[in-house]
């Protein structure tokens, strides 16, 4: 019976796209948009925007989910100290990946979209990516907090939270679509708010069950500062390379390399991640050795 709540939670969590498609299609027809234009715009949203923001979400969640077994062992051993420590680490590792990905997709939205979809007019996609990249943070956080709640044996809670968030999401979507006439951006923003509602409700649930509040400085503040500096460096490198060699591909690749290096150094220098925490990540022992050789630890 423990499988059913997990499956139903996943269904409630992912059915929003189907509902959005139906509401958006009928709504735009009601507002006078032609069917072909509505289908084309939805195709950009569902086929490209969703694909791009789900890549870092998947990476962040796979990294964080690798720590869930240790959380389950702590729960089985009824060790509250270890449970709280694991929950904190899982959420932090998710944000360490999701926040810089959000910044990167924002500042390099145009270059990345034009690199991946070079044969198309990416005007709408670039705008969606710039305005909607925050979905990476909220979907990463909502998904990993779902896993945390399931890991501490509260299987029904993510399902309840997903249903509540879905209802609120539909309400917001209708207001934005019919009231403010925001078109496809009503779907983009209401989708972000759906994930935000999930984050809030899951956070309240975790606090209630564990009497625990997530540490803020190392989880959100320092990664955001490091990501902001990283974003500036990446954008500057891209502009410099693109002006010099006139190659979007080379500019994007070099900007990403510089971004990873700058962000990694800042994480260590700001003490957002210490040696023990880094070693606990997948492949972390190799990263520790590299950091020590570079005198970053």
From TrEMBL:
GO biological process: peptidoglycan biosynthetic process; regulation of cell shape
Compartment(s): Cell membrane
Positions of transmembrane segments: 51-72, 93-117, 129-149, 161-180, 186-207, 219-238, 250-268
Matches recorded under InterPro entries: MurJ (IPR004268), Poly_Biosynth_Transport (IPR050833)
Keywords: Cell membrane, Cell shape, Membrane, Peptidoglycan synthesis, Transmembrane, Transmembrane helix
Topology of the protein relative to the lipid bilayer: Multi-pass membrane protein
One GO CC term, this protein: plasma membrane
Name recorded for this polypeptide: Virulence factor MVIN family protein
Lineage: Bacteria, Bacillati, Bacillota, Clostridia, Lachnospirales
Source organism of the structure: Hungatella hathewayi
Domain of life: Bacteria
């Amino acid at each position: 019976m423990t499988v059913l709540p997990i499956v139903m939670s996943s269904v409630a969590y992912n059915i929003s796209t189907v509902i959005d498609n139906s509401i958006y299609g009928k709504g735009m027809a009601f507002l006078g948009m032609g069917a072909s234009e509505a289908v084309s715009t939805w195709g950009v949203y569902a086929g490209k925007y969703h694909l791009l923001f789900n890549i870092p979400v998947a990476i962040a969640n796979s990294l964080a989910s690798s720590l869930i077994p240790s959380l389950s062992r702590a729960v089985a051993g009824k060790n509250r100290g270890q449970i709280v420590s694991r929950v904190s680490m899982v959420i932090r590792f998710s944000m360490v990946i999701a926040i810089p990905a959000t910044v990167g997709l924002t500042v390099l939205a145009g270059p990345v979209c034009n690199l991946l979809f070079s044969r198309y007019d990416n005007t709408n996609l670039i705008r969606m990516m710039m305005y909607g990249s925050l979905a990476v943070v909220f979907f990463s956080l909502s998904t990993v907090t779902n896993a945390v709640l399931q890991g501490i044996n509260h299987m029904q809670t993510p399902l309840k939270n997903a249903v509540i968030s879905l209802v609120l999401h539909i309400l917001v979507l209708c207001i934005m679509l019919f009231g403010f006439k925001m078109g496809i951006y009503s779907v983009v923003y209401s989708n972000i708010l759906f994930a935000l509602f999930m984050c809030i409700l899951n956070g309240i649930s975790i606090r209630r069950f564990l009497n625990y509040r997530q540490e803020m400085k190392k989880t959100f503040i320092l990664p955001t500062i490091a990501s902001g500096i990283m974003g500036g460096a990446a954008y500057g490198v891209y502009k410099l390379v693109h002006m010099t060699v006139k190659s979007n591909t080379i500019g994007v690749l070099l900007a990403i390399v510089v971004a990873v290096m700058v962000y990694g150094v800042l994480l260590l220098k700001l003490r957002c991640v210490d040696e023990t925490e880094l070693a606990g990540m997948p492949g972390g022992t190799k990263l520790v050795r590299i950091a020590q050789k570079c005198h970053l630890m």
